[in-house]
# Entry
Amino acid sequence: MSDSAEEEFTEGPATPADAVEASTEVFVGHRELLFSIVYNLLGSVADTEDVLQETWLSWSGKKSRSPRQEIENPRAYLVRIAVNHALARKDAITRRRETYVGPWLPEPLITKTAEEPTPDVAEQALRTESVSMAMMVVLETLTPLERAVFVLHEVFGYAHTEIAGILERSPSAVRQLAHRARAHVQARRPRYETTPQVQQEVTERFVAAALGGDLDALMEMLAPEVTMWTDGGGKVRTAGLRPVSGRDKVCRMLAGYAERAPKDIDVHYRHVNGDASAVVFSEESPYAVIVMDLTPGGDQVRGIYAVTNPDKLARVRSGPDGEE
# Structure
């Protein structure tokens, strides 16, 4: 069955009750995909959940108005609704960002390892379609339409003709958006892959050096052009108000953090947006999520993303698997 955005209808369930049950089952079956697409467009779990609620209302309203009609391609229809609700919400998010204190980072999603069960929709979505924290930061520099085209095409594999139907744009316009978005992303983040083992090993060495105040080890690990983003949302005094670049400056910042850090720090190594990362707790409460972005060779750290805003850590749990 083609995944185009055209609405085609066939005979549906015989009663309104049957229609509600069937439409609910269809929506739940696609919720994982919708969550992943919308989160990659917005970078906020709360906003993503709101968009999914709006999508459900649009979907269930359509179904209740036409109880004997069945949408032949519900996946395409739901994706179109969700993407357009997300784009409509993007303006409000942009206005919020204008008054945000300090650097803004996406809300981290803590995921389990491949061997662990993943009952949570967010974890299931990110298991198959993970966009790293570093890539999410780059995506923030695209226009909303460029980001939508890039995410749908590069991450989820939609054809340009399918995206044209979703966004109600011509295929040629979508191709132009895709070209601009791809060039923009490539200029800021050339494609390469670091193995999970290297990511984990470097992250553990970095955290040990940073918390231990080992400046020599940090200087060796950090790339000369390293940049550190600290997202405290104006609610954490130690968080920087702007990104810090350069090995010496980042080292000094990390040394200051080590001196002011709580004494009861407990570090868990988990996957954040698909990457091996450090989740730091103090008295079993989330203190920070730290994600490393490595150089193409994987031997040095070129980006450090530290989320300390308590609002963005509200879903982080201290249990062995990230659960209470």
